[in-house]
Amino acid sequence: MSIASAVPFPPRSAPSRAALWTAGVLLVLGTWLAYANSFSGAFVFDDPPSLLENATLRDLSDWRAVLSPPASAGVGGRPVANLSYALNYALSGHSLLGYHLGNVAIHTLGALTLFGLLRRTLLSPLLSARFGTDATWLAFAVAALWAVHPVQTNSVTYLSQRTEALMGLFYLLTLYAFVRGATAPAHPYRWHSLAVVTCALGMASKEVMVTAPVVVALYDRTFFAGSFAAALRRRWPLYLGLAATWILLGWLMIGLGARGVGFGFRLTWWGYAAASCYSVITYLRLALWPHPLVFDYGPTVAETTVATPYALLVALLVGLSLWALWRRPLLGFLGAWFFVILAPTSSVVPIVRQMVAENRLYLPLIAPLALVVLSVYLVLPRRLAAPVGALVTVGFIALTVQRQRDYRSEISLWSDTVVKRPENWRAHNSLALALANGNQPLASIAHYQASLRLDPTLAETHNNLGTQLTKLGRLAEAVHHLETALRIEAWRADTHTNLGNILAQTGRPDEAVAHFESAVKLDPKLSEAHTGIGNVLLQSGRPAEAVTRYHTALALNSLSPDAHNNLGQALMQLGRPAEGIPHFQRALELRPDSSTSRYNLGNAFVALGRTSDASIQFQTALRLDPANAEAANNLAIIHLQAGQLPAARQLLETAIRLNPGNIDAGNNLTVVLLQLGLRAEARTQLEALLQVQPGHAETHYNLALLLNEDGLKHQAREHLEATLRLKPDHAGATTALQHLGGFQPAPPKP
Q: Are 301 and 352 within one domain?
């Protein structure tokens, strides 16, 4: 047979157009029904670095950036997958609905392609005599079960695993285009050229596509050519083109180690191979009995896996598959399909982050499902086979819908994972992060501690626990965990930054700067470390130098609300409020619920005399954080200046209740009370302030003046003397005391 020759289908097997359309429509409807409740699923696990923090998605016109995704993210080395996310972003930004619609659409196209591939396979010379009559509905049954199988949720509902579904689509398209070319009456090169193109696109979507040329050769040998030699002789240009796509994949895989894949990690190849036997049997079990489904099985250490029985079973199944390739070609090909596609992830190349991942079953799942469907078709009468298939499909849809409820939030997904894999430290750590983001700090800390009980050497968990303890004000404990993290992994720039922030808060600026500088050396692009140095400079009264650091931080990350807010504060200290306002406004665009930035923007408006604008900002700051005493005090001043004394009094009393040591609010309340004619209450207020801060000279002075006006000269003298003891150069107190007969300071102590 020449390269251009074809293998025609038997005429009797040609399906009606109505049957094809009916099967296709039912397949689409079933798939979308199964995933209808997935559209509100949350961003989880790898989604933030791959989507939310991936700057290469944000400008579709910058095609070089789009096709050069960050190596450390889940899209690293996968430019076609990154392009699909960029298209999503161009259409709807970081819309959950948009991303989920994209994932389900890709999966649906994969199901339709599988349907077409299976139907044409069942009509091939090898199988048409046995299955050709019902090829359309057998293909539909396998494709439908595959599309709605609960295990597929990990590839469809988990947004970052679009890489798997997209690769799967191109994998199936490559085989489909091969079949169309192999059976085309003329010009097969058109379809085979398409097969090479889709194979290349798959290589740029996910690395598992490396097996596609091998599987195409196996498929050709099994269903069309009869031998590898005949396949190569008849279609050598196709195989040359498919093999060339490996060059593209090799280039894309440079730097893949940033994702924790490859040799050189703490896992040995033989240890990983042993554990992979457990993984393979797990996948087979899930294919036939999808329970329990686990989002993250954990980074299990391979050498500790008791793998001998699994290894023996896998060896038996692989041996049977090899034997069947020669003696029972259909069974042999199904076995080869399962094991060859799993080989890149479940053989000898360590993947340190996850030993088992349900998304890896995405394409291999086709083989056991096809085997079951064809076996049922051959064993059961047709009047029973169809209802059984329909019942199982409906059951799968129900299980898929139920499974997707776990994806509705990070907390629900990781809670489910912790229940099913309580020994998974990463699940506890991830649940703790989700609880922290959900404002459940104590529950968060409990799971961080559980993670550390499972493995006390986890620098990441020590870092996260330290961060959470910092938010609760438990700074000593936080420092302990952050220092422990650095003893374990001294290269953690984020931990140096977190520790620097605490040291800055606790009055240890030199140590703080040392840690910030270490972070910058480790990661010169770490914006947060430059912001931390700027904060220390600002607190040290060096706003001009702080401005330089904040500009550096923003050059590295223009989306940092802290850097924008703090730059605005530095500019305010330099007497440049007009320049600070745009930065406060940008900080609020990035973090609209920040009461602090609202308060700072209000102060900038006050400095420019825009009191009405300032009033709006202070009111908003109080609405966002009713405990913002400073905003209450400053809003009260605006009311006081406008003669709105009752409103000013209410706000100042609120500020003092929130912070009894707020001297400014206390003195302002005294002014309001005096203007309201409430002298006794004003005096009581000043006395209360001195109970809280007896060392405040100005409050002593104000109380002295009030006492003097009320004729209480002796008490006035005592407070004036206290003022001068605290502040000997206080001119007002000196003058007032001279009118009362002078001040005799105590003789110096020997």
A: yes
- The domain tally of the chain equals 3
SS (H, E, C) 59-91: CCCCHHHHCCCCCCCCCCCCHHHHHHHHHHHHH
Tokens linked to 49: 């670095």
Pull the structure tokens for residue 746. 């105590």
Please check whether residues 226 and 320 belong to one and the same domain. no
Question: pLDDT class for 256, splitting at 50, 70, 90?
Answer: low
Average pLDDT, the chain: 92
- Same domain flag for 295 and 209: no
Residue 735 counted as domain residue: yes
Write the CA distances from 154 to 50, 112, 159, 671, integer angstroms. Answer: 16, 19, 9, 65
Q: Bridge partners of 261?
A: 351
Tell whether 238 and 282 lie within a shared domain: no
CA distance 194 to 484: 55
- Of the pLDDT bands very low, low, confident and very high (cuts 50, 70, 90), residue 662 is confident
pLDDT at 744: 45
The 10s digit of each residue's pLDDT in 187-221 is 899 999 999 999 999 999 999 999 999 999 999 99
In terms of domains, do 203 and 187 share one? yes
Given CA atoms 35, 37, 39, 42 in this order, what sign does their dihedral have? negative
* Pair 436, 444: CB distance under 8 Å: yes
For the stretch 585-598, pLDDT in tens is 999 999 999 999 99
**Any idea of the CA torsion for 5, 327, 142, 366, to the nearest 10 degrees?**
-100
Give the rounded distance of the alpha carbon of 465 from its chain centre. 18
We report the CATH number of the domain holding residue 714 as: 1.25.40
Which pLDDT score is estimated for 347? 76
User: Which stretches of 630-737 are assigned E, i.e. beta strand?
Assistant: none
In Å, what is the CA distance from 611 to each residue of 566, 618, 641, 643, 692?
Answer: 22, 10, 10, 14, 31
**264/243 Cα distance (integer angstroms):** 27
Q: Whole domain around residue 216: which residue ranges? A: 170-254
73 domain residue, yes or no: no
SS3 261: strand
Q: Give the model confidence (pLDDT) of 542-585 as tens digits.
A: 999 999 999 999 999 999 999 999 999 999 999 999 999 999 99
Collapse the DSSP code of 747 into the 3-class scheme (helix H, G, I; strand E, B; otherwise coil) and give the result: coil
The tally of CA atoms less than 13 A away on the side-chain side of residue 420 is 15
- Tell me if 16 is assigned to some domain: no
User: 348-366, pLDDT tens digit by residue?
Assistant: 676 767 889 999 999 999 9
Contacts of 517 (CB under 8 A, 6+ apart): 529, 533
Tens digits of residue pLDDT in 365-405: 999 999 999 999 999 988 899 999 999 999 999 999 999 99
Same structural domain, 317 and 242? no
β-pair partners for 351: 261
pLDDT band at residue 740, thresholds of 50, 70 and 90?
Answer: confident
User: 254, 270, 291 — which closes off a domain?
Assistant: 254
Q: Do residues 175 and 250 share a domain?
A: yes
Torsion sign across C-alpha atoms 587, 591, 593, 594: negative
Is-contact 187 4, C-beta < 8 A?
A: yes
Residues 248 and 300 in one domain: no
Cα 623 to Cα 296: distance, rounded to the nearest angstrom: 40
Domain membership flag for residue 669: no
Confidence band for 745, pLDDT divided at 50, 70 and 90: very low
The confidence score (pLDDT) of residue 224 equals: 95
Q: What is the rounded radius of gyration, in angstroms, for the C-alpha atoms of the chain?
A: 35
Q: Tell me the C-alpha distance between 327 and 443, whole Å.
A: 59
Task: Out of 254, 273, 293, pick the residue that ends a domain.
Answer: 254
